[in-house]
Amino acid sequence: xxxxxxxxxxxxxxxxxxxxxxxxxxxxxxxxxxxxxxxxxxxxxxxxxxxxxxxxxxxxxxxxxxxxxxxxxxxxxxxxxxxxxxxxxxxxxxxxxxxxxxxxxxxxxxxxxxxxxxxxxxxxxxxxxxxxxxxxxxxxxxxxxxxxxxxxxxxxxxxxxxxxxxxxxxxxxxxxxxxxxxxxxxxxxxxxxxxxxxxxxxxxxxxxxxxxxxxxxxxxxxxxxxxxxxxxxxxxxxxxxxxxxxxxxxxxxxxxxxxxxxxxxxxxxxxxxxxxxxxxxxxxxxxxxxxxxxxxxxxxxxxxxxxxxxxxxxxxxxxxxxxxxxxxxxxxxxxxxxxxxxxxxxxxxxxxxxxxxxxxxxxxxxxxxxxxxxxxxxxxxxxxxxxxxxxxxxxxxxxxxxxxxxxxxxxxxxxxxxxxxxxxxxxxxxxxxxxxxxxxxxxxxxxxxxxxxxxxxxxxxxxxxxxxxxxxxxxxxxxxxxxxxxxxxxxxxxxxxxxxxxxxxxxxxxxxxxxxxxxxxxxxx
Amino acid sequence: xxxxxxxxxxxxxxxxxxxxxxxxxxxxxxxxxxxxxxxxxxxxxxxxxxxxxxxxxxxxxxxxxxxxxxxxxxxxxxxxxxxxxxxxxxxxxxxxxxxxxxxxxxxxxxxxxxxxxxxxxxxxxxxxxxxxxxxxxxxxxxxxxxxxxxxxxxxxxxxxxxxxxxxxxxxxxxxxxxxxxxxxxxxxxxxxxxxxxxxxxxxxxxxxxxxxxxxxxxxxxxxxxxxxxxxxxxxxx
Lengths: 525, 237
Description:
The structure holds two protein chains of two kinds.
Chain A: E1 2-11, H1 15-27, E2 32-35, H2 81-84, E3 88-89, H3 94-104, H4 125-135, E4 138-139, H5 148-159, E5 165-166, E6 168-170, H6 196-202, E7 206-208, E8 211-221, E9 224-234, E10 249-260, H7 263-273, E11 292-298, E12 313-315, H8 319-322, E13 324-327, H9 333-339, H10 344-352, E14 357-364, E15 373-376, E16 383-386, H11 391-411, E17 415-418, E18 431-432, E19 482-483, E20 485-487, H12 502-518
Parallel strand pairs in A: 1-2, 1-10, 2-7, 9-19, 10-20
Antiparallel strand pairs in A: 3-6, 4-6, 5-12, 8-9, 9-10, 11-14, 11-17, 12-13, 13-14, 15-16, 17-18
Helix pairs in contact in A: 1-6, 1-12, 4-12, 5-11
Chain B: H1 7-10, H2 18-34, H3 41-76, H4 84-90, H5 104-114, H6 120-130, H7 139-148, H8 155-167, H9 182-193, H10 198-215, H11 219-225
């Protein structure tokens, strides 16, 4: 048994955890321990092989909703999601955050760069966003870095009068290998593992990886319920990981402040397992996943698709009115094979056209529904994600699918292939031969395990709200009715943040980190 | 941390929470709608009897389905089902452009990658698939009958449905999936891919994914589709 004591314990080293730990360590002399469930794989481990790199994902990529229909990807390694994402960076959308203030009663979180939130000089979201953008070198790629696939998508959109814009990416010195999703072998993608985590380590933050936190320890005293630490186990270091500072075995950490940053699936599970008081039954409820529907276009010629910057163009044309984005991405053969419909010779013939495919997809900003929920299963200890698309979301996805078919043909594809086994066209499949057939997308039923919907942006499972009936935590991220316990990650968003969430999560963590230091007497640290 | 040794006892929130109360209320509400407390005692008794009758009929049908599966399995003297024939259907073994001819190594690779031998749920599902529970004498009528069932009905209803179909002679009793010819295998797999039952589609999509992961991670597959692999160790064009 290893015992540790610290001022602040941060659980999770992803977009939120690493940023928060670095921010606290930078601005104060507080002792910080950062724990991560996954291993500490560095650039030297990332071998650009799709199969080997499934180990970077939660449950080796097999985590899905209870009906097995929607894979819910999440990074389970140092750096979390920022190690395995495609570097797509969107600043927090001000109108969404204003909506949260209106609907969930959130306070402070100012977008005004001259605001001093909580009376702390210079504390506001604008400055947090500015810091994060600078540290991660968020910028739009040069025209020369745009690959064929992205150009086709851009041209297809523009021919139909659909706006297409360049993504911003957190990269420096990208070589264009096309393996962002498998971990950057060149440290060119500036996820938290190569940015804020390194800052944190330099400032003396103690990183413990391979560490599963089983429970947060709560005690009751005169002032109420208080989090006093956490206990868990450190697994033996996996081959390929950098060495761990703590020997394998059980671990107890005493801390004055515990921050949960384990992501929108694991954070609610940890809170439930720790029996954190939840008088209004809120933990895990109303989770949103950003359901994504991929599309492939088959061309008569070779398309440069899997090499180069994977994603450099997107369209927010339908974002304001219909609530979805079109984003250009491409997958390596395993993911492509699983996504493309059919089996046998028909499927293999599609795969033989792999070099001639363009790929992009819809990312839906889904509506929170209390029936969609993450719970903890006491049988196997794993998260159970119950999620069903609402009828309104299905309607929006049908509309998006039809637009995607039209864009594929406008780009010059001979066929447009939806990742579905549903009989949509007159030929009983989901392979469209002309743009006129796009109306057949209205027949999509989104039956689970028949149409592939995927997710990589789980959010809003431990919502922030000043009203304890609407959210477990308040605007500071503090759990209502518990002292010394904070939640700071994508789970704290009251609804979807409206776009790929990395920069929004990092900005929130930067903001909360500075606030914690500014209000340290509040936590007796 | 004195209290860390006895965590489960440390804090229990067993007192009913607002949420739990609300849930119980909902459950009561559902029952009160379906079995109204109003009306005579006799009427309520009839309703209760009807409910009991429905439950026992469903249980009997499920038992029939289970026994039939056991009987068919015993007839064949089989304990575990083979994955090979299914893999050979999901990938076009034997076609000209397909790079490998023997499914054996690939099946062993699937078992090695996913540790399926110890996966009881997978083995049971594969046995259910291979025993041709839903193989119709004439595919279309059964397909149509399946379509009428609400999607995502649970496994108990699926078993009951199969038992009825079998009892009414709509299912053909054949030895095993592996005994079918290639065209019949493809038709049967297609039936699972498009089934109205979520559990069947789930089995299909799971095995399909396992097979594709195992195959499309090999250099043979990469070569066949023109994929050049990692930039760190790029294959020749």
